[in-house]
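All the exercises in this workshop are built on plain-text protein records. The record below serves as our worked example for the rest of this section.
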Amino acid sequence: MGQELPITDIRINRQLDPDDDLTALAAHISEHGVMIPILVDHEYRLIDGLRRIRAIESLGQTTIDVAAVALHPPAMAWIGRARQHGIEARPLTPRRIWQLYQATRPLIDATRAQVTRGTQHGRGVRFAGREGFLKAIGIDSESYLQAVTQIFRTSEEDSRKGQAAREVIDLVESGGISPYMALEHVRQRMSIGDVVDAPDQERVLTTVTSTLNGIEYGLSKLGLLSPDFDDAVLKDVMADLTRFRRTLNRLIKQLDKEHHE
């Protein structure tokens, strides 16, 4: 099915939950073997199959059947088969969905690049994008995937926004609240006057100055206006915008300096 690989060669970047009972899985593998190879990328980073690895180790074995898949559709096929083989797959939690999506994004991007270039390896491969991922893990809502990825991505930020996301992660994982409610909590925490950390302030001010640049550019392209319009008013507005933008740029530089000291 795949290739036998020493478990020590697999790059694993996550851990099982402490209360994860592998007894049934280990017994099943002892009797039938690993039905579905674990999935790794081209650098042997683990994508899917941590429970199978730990169960194999508990049996004293040091190698495991591995499927190294370079393109998105075959990888999703392996994940789909693993999800359907219930004895080897726990129900997916929001965090595991996030981890799987993070792990398979490079494969999705590689498939997109192969198909776009029309190279020999990619020829004949239909690019499925998120749809293929959703089908493989058994989720029918793209908006749910977006909410999950956004809340977990935000929780990794070193900012007030990230702190607000981390406050509700346990509730999301336990099913106490949905990812949608978690995102609403983050938005409410980021109300007026709530952006106080230098990195967040810098990002907000950079967005504002970019908008001001667009406004200035648009106003500068205006031709003759209505005779009833006082052109001097427009010149005053342009001057005020320029001064304000320069002030914001000075603030951004100061915040950047504070952030990197």
